[in-house]
Write a structure and sequence with these properties.
The protein is an all-alpha fold.
């Protein structure tokens, strides 16, 4: 499509210039004709020979002027044919029909989704109307289809979010910035929101997304993997008083060091937390893990000079997990590779995967602190990544589809998509019937005219020269 605009501009400029030539030639022809008529009126003058000579000269001038006008007509015909070829290259009548059909399908889907959103009673009538009108523009920001955005709104509304439209856009931002599936983006945001009791705060959730996307970008990690690990680890981490910044840096460090999957890293981290907090870990299906190695793990920590508990005002309390890990990392890094105390600590975890992840975290604690600092530097990073990721071919096609569907929507909209669809169907039938006998440009013109009549947005003003000599030159 990039070469189309210059060709259209050139063709239209040619048409404009040619029309001006015709106007000038027509004015000249008018003057010549008036002179010719005057000479005819003077035919009975005393100098008859001179009169005929003048008539003959004026006739030749008239023919010349008429020929110039007709030549300009030919040029105009050629200019319109060039413009027609531009459109037929990119906008054939069959494509036009397909575009209408696709717009109909999109509008029907959008109407269906809006009906489902309406049932949730989360949005008022005015909010639904704004949602319908703005859905195309919002989807275009992220290179997605309007129906995809509205589906997210429907899911967020179903989850009880009063700011479902804004949460849906945040989910779309997460999808685009992190190249993640819609389902993962939704779960990632809603589960993080629930775990840390953020109450659907767009500002706080956007900050999480910015911080994590920045870490993923800087460390070469997959944002989808980081989001999945966060989603699986958020609940246990929040219960253990580990902040979202800390759990982000922790799981990111583990993934970067060990190369394990998000699910494996999150599972290992939840197991490590149970050892540090001496609590039973709840799995996805609601069952609880075995807690028999708890005493061994505490002894292993104490052998490194690190206690899991503290005494405050005579009351024994569990220490913060991240404080414990910081102390363990300091002690752990000071020991030799074969030191039995290191081996005992890892074995005491009671799970090979969790033990490997703990070893990787403690040996790379400096990476953890680096990522923790980077988290706070990520303001605006998600939108920056989304802009880069939404410049591909598929995103451009989605925007083109949205633009077309939105145009059709605005033309037929009468407060209710369904009533307008019937009008558009009639228009499509007319164009289909005419397509076999009319050229592409003529059919497009008819379609545009019908649209204008539908909304009273314009009236066609067509005129053609009636002079028999020139008439054939204007047939295109």
């Amino acid at each position: 499509m990039s070469n189309t605009e210059p060709r259209v501009e050139t063709s239209t400029n040619n048409i404009t210039e040619t029309i001006q030539t015709i106007i000038n030639a027509t004015q000249e022809l008018t003057v010549v004709n008036e002179t010719y008529i005057t000479s005819l009126c003077n035919i009975y003058s005393p100098t008859i020979a001179d009169g005929f000579h003048e008539i003959n000269n004026n006739l030749r001038e008239t023919e010349s002027a008429m020929q110039e006008t007709c030549n300009a007509g030919d040029l105009l015909k050629d200019a319109f044919q060039e413009l027609s070829s531009v459109f037929t290259d990119y906008f054939s009548i069959s494509q036009l029909g397909d575009y209408f059909k696709n717009a109909l399908a999109d509008l029907k889907e959008i109407d269906s989704i809006l009906s489902e959103i309406r049932k949730t009673d989360v949005l008022s009538s005015s909010q639904l109307k704004d949602l319908e009108d703005n859905s195309f523009d919002i989807a275009n920001k992220y290179g997605k289809k309007a129906a995809d955005y509205l589906t997210l709104v429907q899911e967020m509304a179903g989850a009880g979010y009063s700011n479902s439209a804004e949460m849906a856009e945040l989910s779309m931002l997460a999808q685009t910035a992190g190249n993640m599936e819609a389902a993962l983006a939704n779960e990632y945001l809603t589960m993080t929101d629930a775990a840390y009791d953020l109450k659907g705060s767009l500002e706080k959730l956007n900050k999480v997304l910015d911080g994590q996307s920045f870490i993923a970008h800087k460390s070469g990690l997959s944002m989808s993997d980081l989001a999945e690990a966060t989603m699986l680890a958020a609940s246990q981490s929040a219960k253990s008083c580990v902040t979202i910044e800390e759990v982000t840096a922790t799981v990111a460090t583990m993934m970067a060091v060990t190369g394990e999957s998000a699910d494996s890293v999150a599972s290992a981290w939840n197991t490590i937390l149970t050892k540090l907090q001496q609590i039973a870990a709840q799995t996805k299906n609601g069952a609880f893990t075995d807690t028999t190695p708890l005493t061994e793990f505490e002894k292993a920590c104490l052998s490194l000079g690190v206690s899991l508990k503290s005494v405050k005002n005579g009351i024994v309390e569990l220490r913060n997990p991240m404080v414990i890990l910081n102390d363990l990392a300091t002690a752990y890094s000071s020991l030799g590779t074969a030191d039995q105390r290191k081996i005992n600590l890892i074995d005491a975890v009671g799970d090979e995967n969790a033990g490997n992840q703990l070893n990787g975290l403690l040996e790379n604690w400096n990476l953890y602190t680096k990522m923790l600092a980077e988290y706070s530097q990520g303001s605006g990073n998600a939108m920056k990544e989304a802009a880069k990721n939404s410049s591909d071919w598929e995103s451009s096609l989605n925007r083109l589809s949205n633009t077309w569907t939105d145009m059709v929507h605005k033309v037929i909209n009468s407060g209710d998509i369904t009533s307008g669809i019937n009008v558009l169907n009639e228009l499509l039938n007319v164009i289909k019937n005419l397509s076999d006998v009319l050229g592409p440009l003529a059919t497009i013109g008819i379609g545009a005219g019908l649209f204008a009549n539908l909304k009273n947005i314009g009236r066609a003003k067509n005129s053609r020269p009636s002079h028999p000599i020139c008439r054939s030159s204007y047939r295109f």
